[in-house]
Amino acid sequence: MKKVLVLGLSKSGTAAAKFLKKHGYDVYLTESKSVEPEAELINLGIHVETGGHSLGFVEGAEFAVTSPGIPPHSIIIELLRLKNIPVISEIELAFKMCKTPFVAITGTNGKTTTTALTAHIFEKKFKAKACGNIGQPPCELADDMLDYFICEMSSYQIAMSPTLTPFISVWTNFTPDHIDWHQGIENYFAAKAKIFKSPQAPKFSVLNACDSRLKDFPAEGKVFYFGERKSGNSCYVKNDEFIYENEGVVEFVMPVSDCPLVGVHNYQNVECAIICAKLAGIENDIIRDAIKEFKSPPHRLEYVADLGKTAFYNDSKATNPEAALVAIKSFVNKDVVLIAGGRDKNTTLKEFCDEVKKHIKTVILIGEAADRFEKNLSAAGFANTLRAENLYDAIDKAIHLKPDVVLLSPACASFDMFKSYEERGNVFKDYVLSKS
After folding, report:
1. DSSP letters of 180-245?
2. Radius of gyration of the chain (CA)
3. CB-based burial label for 56 (10 Å; 0-12, 13-18, 19+)
């Protein structure tokens, strides 16, 4: 029986361990933290150690499957390299062990919504599932005889997937992130680029034509663009229509007004999903109906309800100013009240203030960051700010103003008032719905 090492008691590590055991491997699972493993792992005969990585677990392993949170320069990864033990991701393991084609979706922002929407459309015609960073680990689905994996992939997972060759590779955008993990921005870019280039080139590459690093990136396979028309293979918005082109042949897929998602960034997510669906042979009527009934993932510019003429949106996932900018820019020619604030990350607020001046009528500030945000907004020439004692008070004040839109996009972490951005978003939704 071949010995395999699994690093980490994460969701993906646990799925990989169970999958490998099912397929006849002698599985050793090692976790650095002192945590209690689930009883099922022990009952299955999987060897588990916690609180550190021992040489006894490492020695003799044919290969190792790592969790995405373990950086490539960590001591355990370096040890495995010294011993010439290959290290792969759980996604790579699923790819090696089954024949299901991957639609691999990566990017700094937008990949979760794009993955969820793409999977939602594919499920109308195929046996397909969202997986990876969203939904289940692929190894939990690898024996289900799926037609497609719709897989959200972080740069961590791509970096540890040396042979993964997707059917379609999607790159939503590129901005600096995870620099410490990758030890440099160019390493971060190179990690994502792997699944667009030989020897891992996909059949189709889908790139953001509006992104300065991606619009001229030499991806391989047949290349499609979204965001604006580029070459004869694109999906874009023109005259309130989502338009798809393949070899210059134009199709009008659906009116933008029928799309439940708002904002240019969400239209780009829709364009990605349309391209993937068309490349898989899904008909326009199926695509249209699926998009019309789609609901955005929680806390990402999520529509909550209308109270009178006011629409409420929950964007609690925007835990820094850069993330909040996407939502702030999403409402054109609307009277918008923005609820912002929380635990300050002390990043620059210049662009945040500039975009607030262009798009927001009133800002209601809460939490520990309120003083600095108000000072920066005032210095930028924006004076229409209010203070609220808490999120409930902010919602009440916003309702009283009767705007077109109330947007919770805090630009801050939640930990001064809430356990997580999810709790903050749920409190917002519950209180708004209690008013209806």
Report:
1. HHHTSHHHHHHHHHGGGSTTS--SEEEEETT-TTTTT----SEEEEESS--TTSEEEEETTEEEEE
2. 23
3. exposed
Sign of CA dihedral 70, 71, 72, 78: negative
Between 149 and 332, name the one with better pLDDT.
Answer: 149
As a whole number of angstroms, the distance between CA 67 and CA 240 comes to 43
Please answer whether residues 7 and 63 qualify as being in contact, where contact means their C-beta atoms are separated by less than 8 angstroms.
Answer: no
pTM value? 0.86
Q: Is 130 helix (H, G, I), strand (E, B) or coil?
A: strand
Q: Using the structure block, give the residue that is written with the tokens 């997580």.
A: 420
| Residue 178 confidence (pLDDT) above 80 | no
Q: At what angle do helices 321-328 and 350-359 cross, to 10 degrees?
A: 20
Q: Which of the two residues, 205 and 133, has the higher pLDDT score?
A: 205
Q: How far is CA 321 from CA 225, 279, 316, 385, 409, in A?
A: 28, 36, 12, 17, 9
Retrieve residue 280's tokens: 């898989």
- Report helix, strand or coil for 337: strand
Query: Mind listing the pLDDT tens digit for each residue in 280-326?
Result: 999 999 999 999 999 888 999 999 999 999 999 999 999 999 889 99
Q: What is the pLDDT of residues 324-347, one digit of tens each?
A: 999 999 998 999 999 999 999 888
Contact yes or no for 346/373 (Cβ under 8 A):
no
Token pair in block for residue 254: 């659906």
Q: Of the ranges 86-95, 204-213, 293-302, 334-343, which one carries the lowest mean pLDDT score?
A: 293-302
